[in-house]
Specification:
The structure holds two protein chains of two kinds.
Chain A: H1 3-11, H2 16-40, H3 43-52, H4 54-148, E1 154-155, E2 158-159, H5 165-179, H6 189-198, H7 207-216, H8 218-225, H9 236-239, H10 243-258, H11 266-283, E3 289-296, H12 303-314, H13 321-325, E4 330-335, H14 338-350, E5 354-360
Antiparallel strand pairs in A: 1-2, 3-4, 3-5
Chain B: E1 3-7, H1 15-27, E2 33-38, H2 41-50, H3 54-62, H4 66-69, E3 70-73, H5 74-81, H6 90-100, E4 104-106, H7 108-118, H8 121-125, E5 131-138, E6 142-147, H9 153-163, E7 173-175, E8 178-182, H10 192-196, E9 202-205, E10 223-225, H11 235-239, H12 244-316
Parallel strand pairs in B: 1-2, 1-9, 2-5, 9-10
Antiparallel strand pairs in B: 3-4, 5-6, 5-8, 7-8
Classes of the chains: A mainly alpha, B alpha/beta.
C-alpha cells in the first residue's frame, strides 16, 4: 500500500467525534435538567432538600456534568485539530504525489523527446538522402526529356533547330535553367552541351556579337529571363535599371571597350548566361538594406529629445531631424548594416517611439 | 461497541422512555442495542422495545387509560395502608384522598392483561439480546437482576409482574419458590447488570430530573443520560398518572429531549462516515491508480527502449 493510503487509514477513527458529542450533549442536558429541577422546585421542597443536602448533591452533579461537557468539548476540539492536521497531511501528500508524477512525466517526456530526436535525425538524414536522389533523378529525367523533345520545341512558332544562333543559345539556356531548377552540377552541363550540339551550335561564337544582338532584341531578353521567380522583387530604381539588363549591358560594354572579337565555344557562353541568371535569383533572396520607419512618437513635446537621438545615434544632420519627427510615419533612412539600423531602432524605442525595421531587396 | 440501554422505573412516567426509544429508532440507534435492563415500567418498555415494533409499542402508551391498569382506587389504597408503618401518614394521605380518587396503582389483573396484550413473550424467549429486570427478594430485600430473554414465556411474565410488584399494594410475586417485589425499592436504575456483561457505552433514561448517577461505581464505562427537561410529575401526578394525553405529552417530551442530544451526535457521525468513506474511496483509487500507473510506466519504458533499439539498429544499417 502506498504512503498516502497508510497515512489516512492509520489516523482515521470513525464515530469518535460522534460519541464525544453525544457525551457532551448528554452531560449538558442532564445538567440543564438538574438546573430546571432546582429552579422549579417549591419553597417547601427547596427548604427540605436544602436541609437534607439533596439540592447540594444536585448542584455538585450539575458541576460534574459541566466539567464532563467541557472536557469533551476540549476533546472534540482536539479531534477536530487532529482531523485538520490529517487534512493538511493529505494535502501535503497529494502535493508531493503530484510533484512526483510531474517529475516522472518530465522524465518520460524527456525520454520520449530524446527518442523522437533520435528518430528525427535518423529520418531527416534518410529523407535528405532520398530527397537528393529524387531531385537528381527528377533533374536527369527533366534533362533527358528536354533533350528528347527537342524536335517539338519552338520559339515564336519556329523549331529550335531553325532559330538563329543567339536565339538557340538563349532558349537552351532558359530551358536548361528550368530543367535543373537553377541548381545544376558539373555532370548536368553535359546535357546542355549535347543539346547545343544537337542544335548545331558546334562552332564558336563571338560573345560581343551575341550580347549586342541580345540587347537589341527585347523579346529574346524576355525569353532569357522568362519563368525566373525572384524571392523578392528587386527595386530597379536602386540599380538604375533591371538588374539582369544591367549585368548583360555591363558584359556587353566591357566586351565592346575591349573590342574583343575572340570566339568562345557556345557552351562557355551558355554557362556565362546561366551564371548571370543564378546571380540574379540568389540576389533576390538577400536583402540589400534595412529601411527604418518611424511610425509614431509618443508626444509632441518629445520631438526635441527624439531629434537629438536621431542626430547622435543615427548620424542624421540636425536640421533634417525636425522634418522627420513632424511627418510620422516616415522613413528615417535605409541602412546597409542591420546592426546600424538596430542601434538606432533601440535608441528610438527607448524614447517610446514606435519603430519598424523592414528589409529592402 | 456494545450499546446498553437502562430504563428506570416510574409508573405512568414511563411513556417518556418510549418517546426516547422512538427518537433512537428514528436516528437508527436501536439496532445497535446489545443489552437492556429495566425496573418496573422500564422493564415493560424494554420488553416492548425488544419485540421490535416501536410503532406498536408507542400505541400501547397512546391507548393507555387508567381503567386498563388501575383497578384499585386511591381510597382503597389508603384503606390498605391501615396497619402498615405508613399508617402514621394517614392524616396526610387523607388530604390527597380526593385527588387520588382519579388515580390508583397497578392492579395485578390489569398488569397481567396489559402484558398479555402488548408483549410478545414468545418472541422475548427467543431473543438473543440480554434483557434484565430488577426485582428485590422479599423479605431479605436483596436485589436480583433477572435475565428475561431465553426464558419460558410464563416465567418472563412472572418476572415482569415481580419487577412491578409495588410493596404493600401487591403481594410479592413468586418465582422459583422465592418471593419478589418491585426492584425500584433497591435499584431503580439498573446499570449494574449491563456493566457486568461489558456493555459500553450505556444510555440511561431516568424518569426523575433529580436522579444522581454515581459514575464511580462503573469505572471505564461511558454512561450517557437522557434526563427529562420538564418535570414528569411526582408520585400522584406522574407515577400514578395513566392518562393517554399525559402519556402522549411525556412521549413527545422524551422524543424532543432525545433528539436534542442525539441529533448533533448523529450529524457528527454522518460527517465522520462521509469523511471515512471519502478517505476509503481515495485509498482505493490510489491503490488502483498505483497498480495501473506502475504497469503503464513499465510498458512505457519497455516501449521506449524497444523503439530506441530499433532506431539505433536502423541507423547502424
Amino acid at each position: 500500500m502506498n504512503k498516502l493510503s497508510v497515512l489516512q487509514l492509520d489516523h482515521l477513527t470513525q464515530g469518535e467525534l460522534a460519541l464525544l458529542t453525544f457525551e457532551c450533549m448528554s452531560a449538558l442536558s442532564s445538567s440543564e435538567a438538574k438546573w430546571r429541577e432546582l429552579k422549579e422546585q417549591g419553597k417547601l421542597t427547596r427548604l427540605f432538600r436544602s436541609l437534607n443536602g439533596k439540592n447540594n448533591t444536585l448542584r455538585m452533579a450539575m458541576h460534574e456534568n459541566f466539567i464532563t461537557a467541557q472536557k469533551n468539548a476540549m476533546n472534540i476540539i482536539g479531534q477536530l485539530v487532529k482531523g485538520q492536521t490529517l487534512s493538511f497531511s493529505v494535502i501535503s501528500s497529494l502535493h508531493e504525489k503530484v510533484l512526483q508524477l510531474q517529475l516522472e512525466n518530465d522524465r518520460k517526456f524527456f525520454s520520449l523527446y530524446q527518442t523522437l530526436e533520435m528518430m528525427y535525425e535518423e529520418s531527416a538524414e534518410k529523407f535528405k538522402q532520398l530527397h537528393s536522389r529524387m531531385y537528381q533523378l527528377e533533374k536527369k529525367v527533366s534533362l533527358i526529356d528536354w533533350r528528347q523533345s527537342l524536335s517539338y520545341m519552338t520559339y515564336h512558332s519556329i523549331p529550335y533547330k531553325q532559330l538563329r544562333p543567339e536565339e538557340k543559345v538563349v532558349c537552351a539556356v532558359n530551358d536548361f535553367y528550368h530543367a535543373t531548377k537553377g541548381n545544376w552540377q558539373q555532370e548536368d552541363e553535359k546535357y546542355l552541351e549535347y543539346m547545343l550540339l544537337d542544335l548545331q551550335l558546334d562552332k564558336p561564337i563571338i560573345p560581343a556579337h551575341f550580347y549586342e544582338r541580345l540587347s537589341q532584341n527585347k523579346a529574346l531578353f524576355e525569353r532569357l529571363r522568362s519563368g525566373i521567380q525572384l524571392a523578392h522583387p528587386i527595386d530597379a530604381a536602386i540599380y538604375g535599371e533591371e538588374p539582369l539588363i544591367l549585368l548583360l549591358n555591363q558584359q556587353r560594354i566591357s566586351l565592346h571597350r575591349q573590342k574583343a572579337q575572340r570566339k568562345i565555344p557556345s557552351i562557355e557562353l551558355a554557362m556565362q548566361l546561366l551564371t548571370q541568371l543564378a546571380i540574379i535569383e540568389q540576389a533576390s533572396r538577400v536583402p540589400i538594406g534595412y529601411e527604418l520607419v518611424l511610425a509614431s512618437i509618443p508626444h509632441v513635446n518629445d520631438r526635441l529629445r527624439i531629434n537629438r537621438t536621431l542626430h547622435l545615434e543615427g548620424g542624421i544632420p540636425l536640421d533634417q531631424c525636425p522634418s522627420i519627427t513632424n511627418n510620422t510615419p516616415v522613413t528615417v533612412s535605409v541602412y546597409h548594416s542591420l546592426q546600424e539600423a538596430n542601434t538606432l531602432k533601440k535608441a528610438l524605442e527607448q524614447n517610446k517611439c514606435q519603430v519598424h525595421l523592414m528589409e529592402v531587396f | 461497541m456494545k450499546l446498553g440501554l437502562v430504563l428506570a422505573g416510574g409508573g405512568g412516567k414511563g411513556s417518556y422512555q418510549m418517546g426516547v426509544i422512538k427518537a433512537m429508532e428514528h436516528i437508527g440507534l436501536t439496532k445497535y442495542i446489545q443489552g437492556v435492563a429495566g425496573t418496573s415500567v422500564g422493564a415493560l418498555n424494554g420488553a416492548l422495545l425488544l419485540n421490535g415494533d416501536i410503532e406498536k409499542a408507542c400505541q400501547v402508551w397512546e391507548n393507555i387509560s387508567p381503567n386498563k391498569i388501575l383497578s384499585i382506587k386511591g381510597r382503597t389504597l389508603i384503606e390498605k395502608l391501615k396497619g402498615t408503618p405508613l399508617e402514621k401518614m394517614h392524616d396526610k394521605l387523607e388530604i390527597y384522598s380526593k385527588r387520588l380518587e382519579d388515580y390508583g396503582v397497578f392492579s395485578r389483573k390489569g398488569m397481567v392483561s396489559l402484558i398479555e396484550e402488548s408483549v410478545d413473550l414468545h418472541q422475548l424467549s427467543t431473543c438473543d439480546i440480554p434483557f434484565y429486570a430488577t426485582c428485590v427478594e422479599f423479605p431479605s430485600m436483596t436485589q436480583t437482576y433477572f435475565q428475561l430473554n431465553r426464558q419460558k414465556p410464563q416465567l418472563i411474565q412472572s418476572m415482569l409482574l415481580a419487577t412491578s410488584a409495588i410493596p404493600v399494594v401487591f403481594p410479592p410475586e413468586e418465582i422459583e419458590g422465592k418471593l419478589y417485589i418491585d426492584g425500584g425499592v433497591k435499584d431503580n436504575v439498573p446499570i449494574a447488570p449491563l456493566y457486568k456483561i461489558g456493555c459500553n457505552p450505556i444510555i440511561v433514561i431516568p424518569l426523575d430530573r433529580s436522579y444522581i448517577l454515581n459514575r464511580s461505581l462503573y469505572p471505564d464505562a461511558s454512561i450517557y443520560e437522557i434526563v427529562p427537561q420538564n418535570s414528569l410529575g411526582h408520585i400522584v401526578s406522574g407515577t400514578l398518572q395513566f392518562n393517554r394525553e399525559v402519556a402522549k405529552r411525556h412521549m413527545q417530551d422524551g422524543y424532543n429531549d432525545a433528539m436534542r442530544i442525539l441529533r448533533p451526535a448523529f450529524s457528527m457521525l454522518q460527517h465522520e462516515q462521509s469523511v471515512f468513506k471519502s478517505v476509503q474511496k481515495m485509498a482505493y483509487n490510489e491503490q488502483a491508480f498505483q497498480k495501473i500507473h506502475t504497469k503503464n510506466t513499465l510498458e512505457f519504458q519497455k516501449g521506449i527502449s524497444n523503439l530506441q533499439n530499433k532506431i539505433q539498429g536502423g541507423y547502424r544499417k
